[in-house]
Backbone:
């Protein structure tokens, strides 16, 4: 059960001297992070720096070696209904239709059947899949499956969505479409998003704030002055600062091939 923790200021997520890893072996250490409610925070870093591990820890799937994670004023001790996780792999059940995949976490939460169907249909409509609600995942394209996954995450009405390189396996056109859809869905829901990527262009497009992650914690933090403004995208100087921080880290091989440490 998540235990209340006093917060010095209202934060969607806060970490203090966090160390994460597997079998006692750290993947990332000394991580102090503060995410504001309603923010899109992009965590940028090379493979092996611990981005995915951090996201899974925020979602409650990985326990810290040291330090703590506080979400909405409560210490994270496991998964919770107000936190959703979106993977690069769509993670849909192949024998359930798109609608029934969206309804599944609502059923687990005990949401009545009529309300489950209403929410599933609402979010499938928002992501443009009304006509495909009864299709199985195998009958959908990769982009459509990611839209189903996004609808499933938003249907539970979370305060926080953790997104682990969700568009990394998509072609460029579909990826751009999904990025636009995410921005629209975020505006409609008002939730907080922590988005992990290794793609600088994606970070610049989506973020209110970019943090560059290395094995020893955050190596750079970059607030975007006019986020998601097509008329004033981050300029060359801003991009150069982000790239300079990224260059101070290096690609690291996972310590265990069976663990996700990206």
Residues:
């Amino acid at each position: 059960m998540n235990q209340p923790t006093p917060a010095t200021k209202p934060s969607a997520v806060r970490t203090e001297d966090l160390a994460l890893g597997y079998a006692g072996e750290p993947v990332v250490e000394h991580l102090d992070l503060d995410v504001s409610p309603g923010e899109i925070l992009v965590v940028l870093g090379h493979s092996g720096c611990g981005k995915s591990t951090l996201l899974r820890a925020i979602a409650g799937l990985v326990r810290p070696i040291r330090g703590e994670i506080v979400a909405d004023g409560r210490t994270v001790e496991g998964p919770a209904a107000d936190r959703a996780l979106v993977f690069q792999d769509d993670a849909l059940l192949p024998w359930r239709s798109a609608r029934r995949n969206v309804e599944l976490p609502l059923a687990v939460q005990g949401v009545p059947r009529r309300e489950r169907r209403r929410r599933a249909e609402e979010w499938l409509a928002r992501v443009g899949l009304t006509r495909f609600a009864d299709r199985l995942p195998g009958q959908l394209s990769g982009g459509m499956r990611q839209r189903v996954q996004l609808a499933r995450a938003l249907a539970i009405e979370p305060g926080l969505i953790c997104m682990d390189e969700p568009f990394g396996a998509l072609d460029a056109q579909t990826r751009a479409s999904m990025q636009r859809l995410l921005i629209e869905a975020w505006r409609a829901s008002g939730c907080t998003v922590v988005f992990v990527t290794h793609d600088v262009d994606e970070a610049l497009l989506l973020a209110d704030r970019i943090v560059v992650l290395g094995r020893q914690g955050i190596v750079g933090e970059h607030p975007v002055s006019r986020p998601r403004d097509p008329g004033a995208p981050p300029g060359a100087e801003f991009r150069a600062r982000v790239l300079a921080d990224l260059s101070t880290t290096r690609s690291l091989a996972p310590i265990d091939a069976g663990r996700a440490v990206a």
Summary: The chain is about 30% helix and 25% strand. The radius of gyration is 18 Å. Residues 94-157 form one domain. The helical segments are 51-59, 98-108, 113-126, 142-155, 172-189, 200-206, 236-247.
